[in-house]
Design brief:
Layout (H helix, E strand, L loop, with lengths): L32 H28 L10 H12 L8 H13 L1 H4 L3 H26 L4 H13 L1 H7 L4 H16 L5 H18 L7 H11 L3 H24 L5 E3 L1 H7 L1 H14 L6 H15 L5 E2 H27 L7 H31 L5 H13 L6 E3 L1 H9 L7 E3 L37 E4 L1 H4 L6 H8 L1 E7 L6 E6 L4 H23 L4 E3 L1 H8 L5 H10 L5 E4 L13 E5 L4 H12 L9 E5 L2 E5 L19
Parallel strand pairs: 3-4, 3-5, 8-9
Antiparallel strand pairs: 1-2, 5-7, 6-7, 9-10, 10-12, 11-12
C-alpha cells in the first residue's frame, strides 16, 4: 500500500486548544434616502429646473397687463375678496383663495385681477411638474418631454389662457395628476383610488372635465390584466362618459367662453398639429387614452359650432402639448428601426419636410402673438380710468361698471351699494308663445329684487367687457344711449369711456350744454380782449369755443385786475374733448408772487376754491372739481352770438 502525505495541519492533541474563526456578518450599508433620490431623479431634476425657470419668467413677464382683464376674472376675484364662495359650490374659487388670501396677493397688486393672476403663476408651475411626470411615465424621452413643457407653457394660446383667473386652470392640475396616477404599475390599490379622487376633484372644480374621466379609467384599464378588474373599470368609464357628455352637450349654449375662430388667431399651429399628433398617437398603445381624450375634446369644440365652453380648450391644451412631441418621438424611433428597407427613404423625406414646415409655421406665427402678451399693456386704459374716478368722483357716487373695475373701486373706498356691476341688470324678456286653452300655468318664480333703474346712477363706465356682453340688457343699453362721454382713455376696442348719465335724456343734456357754451363763449370773449391776460393759441381756441369752466372765467376776470399773466388751459388726462377745468398761470415776476397767487386762489369762497393748486417757480397750476354749478355767469345779450 502506497503511503500518502497529508498537507492538512495536524490536529492539536487537546481539543480544547482548537479555536475556529467565528464568521461575522458584514454591516449593511447605511440608508441614504436623499442620495438615492438624486441618483434616481437627478437627470429629470436637471432637465426640469431650467424649464420651470423659463416658464416662470415668461408667464410673469406682463401677466398683470396682458391679456386684457375679462369680466369673469373680475367676478371671480371679487368673490374671493368678499369671501362670497363656499367649498360645496365653488371649489375652484376655494382653491384659488387658498393662495390669494394667506399670501396677501390682493394687497400687493395695484389691481385686484392682477393679484388673482399671481395665483395662476403657481398653478402653472405645478402643472409643468405634473406634465413632466406624466410624460416620463408614458415613456417619453427627456428631450421630447422638455418640448411638451415648452408647448404647454410658452405657446401663445396656452400663455393667454394660463394667465386668466379661471377655475378651469386649477381643474387641469387635478386632471394631469389623475392621468399620472393612472399610469402606476406598482401599488395600484393605492394609486388607482387616488387617481379617481383626483378626477372627482377636477370635475367638482369644473364640471366640464367629466369628459376626460373615461380616458383616465382607460389608462388604468391598460395597466391591469385581471378580467374582473377590467370589467369594473369599463363600467365606471361608461357611466362617467355618459354623464360627462350629457352635461357638456346640454350646456354648450350656457358656458360659452369664445369661438374656435377667435382661438385660431391666437395659435393656429397648436390647433392644427395637436389633433394630427393625436391621430398619430393612436398607433401606440401607451398614448391611446390621452389621444382619445384630445380627439373627443376637439370634436366637442368643432362639431356643435358657434360658442363653446372655454373649459374644453383649456383641457385640450396640455394634452396637445404632450402628444405632439410624444408622437413625434415614437415615430422617429419606429423609422430608425426600419433602416435598410425600401420605404425608409420616402418616410424620412416626408418626416423631414413636415418638421421643417412646423418650424417655419412656429417662427412665422408665435413671435407676432407672443409680443403683445409680453410687451403691450391693454390694461393701461382701465388703470387710467380708475385713477380718474378715484380723483374726480365722490366716494358716495353711483356708478355702473364691470367686475374688474368694481373690485378696485371698492378697495379705494367706494361704497358697495353705489358701485353696481352691469351684469346685475336682468336680460330682456322675450315674448313667449300663447298657451293653449286648458294648459297648466306655471307658478310665478320667487321674488328676485332687481337693482335700481339706470336713471338712479351718475356714471356708466363703458369697457370692452361691457360692450362685448352678448346679453341684451335694456337698462345698460338705455344708460349708454342717454349718456355723454366725460373722459376717454385708450383707443379702439380696448378704450374705456366714462359716461355721465342724463336721467332727462341725452338730447336735453346736449341742449343745456350748448346753452352753457354760448354763455361761457360770450364771457371769455371779454377776457380775450383783456391785455392783462395773454392766452396761448390752444387756450384761445378753447375759449372761443366756450369750452371753459365758468369758475375759471370768473377767477381770470378777478386776477386780470391785479396781475399780468400768461394763460394756458391744458386738458386733463382723458378729457381732451371736454370742458377745460385746469388753468396754468405763468409769467409772474417772482416765486414769492406765485406763492401769493396760489394762496389767493386757495382763499376763494366756494364754489371758486380749486381742488388742487401747485406751484413750480413762477408758474401756478390750479385744478377745479369735475362739475361746476350752473348760473354763475349772466346770460349773454340775445343779439350776440358766441
Amino acid at each position: 500500500m502506497r503511503d500518502t502525505v497529508s498537507t492538512l495541519p495536524a490536529l492539536p492533541r487537546d481539543l480544547d486548544e482548537l479555536r475556529l474563526p467565528i464568521p461575522v456578518q458584514p454591516r449593511p450599508p447605511r440608508p441614504r434616502p436623499v442620495r438615492e433620490w438624486f441618483r434616481r431623479n437627478g437627470p429629470d431634476f436637471a432637465w426640469l429646473a431650467p424649464l420651470l425657470t423659463l416658464t416662470g419668467f415668461v408667464h410673469a413677464a406682463g401677466m398683470a397687463r396682458a391679456p386684457a382683464f375679462a369680466e369673469v376674472e373680475g367676478e371671480a376675484v371679487a368673490r374671493i375678496a368678499d369671501g362670497a364662495w363656499s367649498f360645496s359650490g365653488d371649489l375652484g374659487l376655494a382653491q384659488l383663495a387658498a393662495w390669494i388670501g394667506p399670501s396677501g396677493a390682493l394687497d400687493r397688486a395695484s389691481q385686484a385681477v392682477a393679484g388673482g393672476r399671481e395665483a395662476m403663476l403657481v398653478v402653472l408651475l405645478l402643472g409643468v411638474v405634473l406634465l413632466w411626470i406624466l410624460a416620463r411615465r408614458l415613456g417619453v424621452a427627456r428631450p421630447a418631454a422638455a418640448v411638451a413643457v415648452v408647448l404647454f407653457a410658452v405657446s401663445p394660446l396656452a400663455l393667454h389662457l394660463h394667465r386668466m383667473v379661471l377655475a378651469e386652470n386649477v381643474a387641469v392640475l387635478w386632471t394631469l395628476l389623475a392621468f399620472a396616477l393612472a399610469t402606476a404599475r406598482r401599488r395600484q390599490p393605492v394609486a388607482f383610488p387616488a387617481a379617481a379622487a383626483a378626477m372627482v376633484v377636477a370635475a367638482l372644480t369644473q364640471t366640464t372635465f367629466l369628459v376626460v374621466a373615461p380616458f383616465v379609467v382607460w389608462m388604468m384599464w391598460q395597466q391591469v390584466t385581471a378580467r374582473a378588474w377590467r370589467l369594473v373599470l369599463a363600467g365606471v368609464a361608461t357611466a362617467a362618459g355618459a354623464g360627462g357628455y350629457a352635461y357638456v352637450l346640454m350646456s354648450l349654449g350656457d358656458l360659452g367662453g369664445g369661438t374656435p375662430e377667435r382661438w385660431w388667431t391666437l395659435d393656429p399651429v397648436l390647433l392644427v398639429v395637436g389633433p394630427v399628433a393625436a391621430g398619430a398617437a393612436l398607433l401606440f398603445r401607451p398614448l391611446r387614452p390621452v389621444a382619445g381624450a384630445l380627439l373627443t375634446l376637439v370634436l366637442l369644440i368643432v362639431v356643435p359650432g358657434g360658442s363653446a365652453p372655454v373649459a374644453l380648450l383649456i383641457a385640450a391644451v396640455p394634452l396637445a402639448a404632450l402628444l405632439v412631441p410624444a408622437a413625434a418621438h415614437r415615430l422617429v424611433v419606429r423609422m430608425l428601426s426600419m433602416r435598410g428597407r425600401p420605404e425608409a427613404t420616402p418616410l424620412a423625406i416626408m418626416s423631414t419636410t413636415a418638421a421643417a414646415a412646423l418650424v417655419v409655421a412656429v417662427a412665422a406665427t408665435w413671435p407676432g402673438e407672443l409680443r403683445p402678451l409680453l410687451r403691450e399693456d391693454p390694461v393701461a386704459p382701465v388703470e387710467q380710468a380708475e385713477r380718474w374716478l378715484e380723483a374726480n368722483v365722490p366716494r358716495e357716487g353711483r356708478l355702473v361698471v364691470d367686475h374688474t373695475i368694481r373690485a378696485d373701486l371698492l378697495r379705494s373706498g367706494f361704497s358697495a351699494g353705489g358701485v353696481l356691476p352691469f351684469t346685475s341688470y336682468p336680460a330682456a324678456e322675450s315674448p313667449g308663445e300663447l298657451l293653449p286653452l286648458g294648459a297648466t300655468v306655471a307658478a310665478p318664480p320667487a321674488f328676485d329684487p332687481r337693482p335700481p333703474g339706470w336713471t338712479h346712477y351718475d356714471y356708466i363706465v363703458s369697457t370692452a367687457a361691457l360692450r362685448d356682453d352678448d346679453t341684451d340688457r335694456p337698462d345698460v343699453r338705455a344708460a349708454l344711449a342717454e349718456s355723454t362721454v366725460v373722459a376717454e382713455f385708450g383707443s379702439g376696442d380696448g378704450r374705456v369711456e366714462i359716461r355721465a348719465i342724463h336721467p332727462l335724456g341725452r338730447d336735453v343734456a346736449e341742449a343745456v350744454a350748448a346753452d352753457d357754451r354760448r354763455t361761457v363763449g360770450y364771457a371769455t370773449g371779454q377776457l380775450l380782449r383783456n391785455d392783462a391776460l395773454r392766452f396761448d393759441a390752444d387756450a384761445r381756441a378753447v375759449a372761443e369755443a366756450g369750452r371753459v369752466d365758468p369758475r375759471l372765467v370768473i377767477i381770470l376776470g378777478k386776477l386780470s385786475g391785479t396781475h399780468e399773466v400768461d394763460v394756458a388751459l391744458p386738458a386733463l388726462p382723458g378729457e381732451d374733448a371736454g370742458v377745460r377745468r385746469q388753468v396754468v398761470l405763468s409769467g409772474l415776476p417772482t416765486e414769492d408772487e406765485a406763492a401769493r397767487v396760489a394762496l389767493w386762489l386757495l382763499g376763494q369762497p366756494p364754489p371758486f376754491t380749486p381742488s388742487q393748486v401747485d406751484t413750480d417757480g413762477t408758474t401756478v397750476t390750479a385744478t377745479y372739481s369735475l362739475t361746476a354749478p350752473r348760473g354763475l355767469l349772466p346770460d349773454p345779450p340775445q343779439h350776440d352770438s358766441p
